[in-house]
Amino acid sequence: MAYMSQEGYDKLIAELQRLESIERPKASAAIAEAREKGDLSENSEYDAAKEAQAHLEDKINLLKLTISEAKVVDTSRLSNDAVQILSKVEMTNMTNKAKMTYTIVSESEANLREGKISIQTPIAQGLLNHKVGDEVEVKIPRGTIKLRIDKITVG
């Protein structure tokens, strides 16, 4: 089960609809066009179109699975007391005093450019269940960093 925001869930639904209503017909059309070019045994365009269709179907099936396992979190019931899924955490790296802000989200909603990190990441795992003022040591690939939680908000 993947906990996620309503916004994240809505994006998954929209992506699924786009893939099924736009990309799937394009893939079928590409196969039909390649098929018209003759001998299928030596038709690399046909093979490529079939492979692209298979990748598309895999993506659609994975998206359907993610949606079926999704549990939308009611943010009005979340607390700012401790870090949890959908918490926006403002923190300070105690080594270099750099300020960082991340929102902890499901794997499918993660987007570093938007400041959204997966709950699966070492930083998110290190922050979970800690409170404002706590200093946590987090093991990351480059070693260990010490973070102080400055503020927790929901959403």
Structure, described:
By secondary structure, the protein is of the alpha/beta class. A five-stranded mixed β-sheet has the order 5-4-3-7-6. β6 and β7 form a beta hairpin. The two termini are 20 Å apart.
Helix content: 40-55%
Strand coverage percent = 25-35%
Instruction: Kindly report the spatial arrangement of strands forming the biggest sheet.
Output: 5-4-3-7-6
What class do helices, strands and sheet pairing give? alpha/beta
Topology, number of strands: 7
Low-confidence stretches: none
Q: Order of helices and strands, N to C?
A: EHHEEEEHEE
Quick check: average pLDDT? Answer: 92
Alpha carbon gyration radius: 22 Å
Search tags:
155 residues; elongated; two-stranded parallel ribbon; alpha/beta; 3 helices; 7 strands; 5-stranded mixed β-sheet; single chain
Short description:
The protein is of the alpha/beta class and 155 residues long.
Give the SSE layout:
Layout: E1 2-4, H1 6-35, H2 44-69, E2 70-72, E3 87-93, E4 99-105, E5 116-118, H3 122-127, E6 135-140, E7 143-154
